[in-house]
Amino acid sequence: MPSLMEALEARRADVLGQAERLREQIAALSEELSRAEERLARLQIARETVEEVLAAPCSPAPDTDAGEDAGGVAVALVKAEAELDVTVMSPEYREIIALFATSGAAMRCKEVCRHLGLGTEARHVEGMRSKLKRLVERGILAELSSGLFKADGRKQGW
Q1: CA distances from 131 to 71, 109, 149, 158 (A)
Q2: Among 141, 64, 70, CA closest to 106
Q3: What global pTM score does this model have?
Q4: Rounded distance, CA 132 to CA 148, Å?
Q5: Residue range 40-64: average pLDDT?
Q6: Residue 118: count of CB within 10 angstroms of its CB
Q7: Sheet strands side by side (includes 148-151)
Q8: Residue 149's Cα: distance from chain center in Å?
Q9: I need a surface site. Which of 99, 115, 121, 132 has the fewest CB within 10 A?
Q10: Rounded to an integer, what distance in angstroms lies between the CA atom of residue 116 and that of residue 89?
Q11: What is the pLDDT of residue 149?
Q12: CA neighbor of 110 nearest in space, from 127, 95, 94
């Protein structure tokens, strides 16, 4: 009988150890869940604020060339997000869109590459050209002439 009791005690100790490890994992996951929920709440507040700002009528600053384009680009971004357009929502495209929205100027591919700190070799320029063409297809940019791009939202209705 003593060996049976020792075996039961050994199993009990194993299960107690397992239960303690699970409690620690639950505590760590609960903490991680709390952080994630906090980030979600902040993102929701930011989204509501952006929607509120975009819904309010505003006039561009008199000395801002990109005022109308920047507002339109924001509307296009909200629309792209609503349509779950992952291309436009990617960080690379956001950086390109922000450049056009803030500058308000028409630019060529090589110039865009230079502004974004990319190389100006043919592979970079051609890669940028394809990204800019995608943005033209989505109505965020317009191709004024061959290879000359500018923020434009006519297809978006702004």
Answers
A1: 21, 10, 11, 21
A2: 141
A3: 0.49
A4: 10
A5: 67
A6: 15
A7: 107-108, 148-151, 141-145
A8: 22
A9: 121
A10: 17
A11: 92
A12: 127
Q: What is the mean pLDDT of residues 117-130?
A: 91
Whether 55 and 68 have beta carbons less than 8 Å apart is answered as: no
Question: Could you give the percent of the chain with pLDDT greater than 70?
Answer: 72
Task: Specify the DSSP element, H or E, that contains 93.
Answer: helix 91-103
d(CA 72, CA 153): 6
Could you report how far apart the first and last alpha carbons of the chain are, in Å?
Answer: 86
Give 143: exposed, middle or buried? Use CB within 10 Å, 0-12, 13-18, 19+: middle
- Coil/strand/helix, residue 150: strand
Residue 48 pLDDT greater than 50, yes or no: yes
Tokens coding 89: 């929502």
More confident position, 84 or 16 = 16
Q: What share of the chain is helix, strand, coil (3-state, %, to 5)?
A: 70, 5, 20
At 48, give phi and psi (nearest 5°): -60, -40
Phi and psi angles of residue 148, each rounded to the nearest 5 degrees, phi first: -115, 115
d(CA 94, CA 112): 13
- 139, 152 in Cβ contact below 8 A? yes
Look-up: residue for tokens 């009990």?
12
